[in-house]
Fold this sequence. Notes:
Elements: E1 16-20, E2 23-32, H1 37-50, E3 57-67, H2 69-84, E4 89-92, H3 96-104, H4 107-110, E5 112-114, H5 117-120
Parallel strand pairs: 2-3, 3-4, 4-5
Antiparallel strand pairs: 1-2
Helix pairs in contact: 1-2
Amino acid sequence: xxxxxxxxxxxxxxxxxxxxxxxxxxxxxxxxxxxxxxxxxxxxxxxxxxxxxxxxxxxxxxxxxxxxxxxxxxxxxxxxxxxxxxxxxxxxxxxxxxxxxxxxxxxxxxxxxxxxxxxxxxx
Length: 123
């Protein structure tokens, strides 16, 4: 189950994290903007801590309806954090609202990007 990023009700988390195989999968739905990026950042930090050494952190953005510049910045930040730790941030996105900002900023050349969750999973 994936909850939206925007204004969670009391007692619910706006993001869900689940482990699958050897990687940590962070599944996100809703708008990734200046107001929701802190939540995404914290969730990615937790995933980086929990993932097995050398295994990727997988960010599933297929449920995202908006990706703003603050979201792009957090993707780059965690790409670098993962690289410094000897792991890879793998991003799953299949919709225009996510892929277009990545292409316009050439981040699609920097980041590991796929449209299929199975392709992001470690072999």
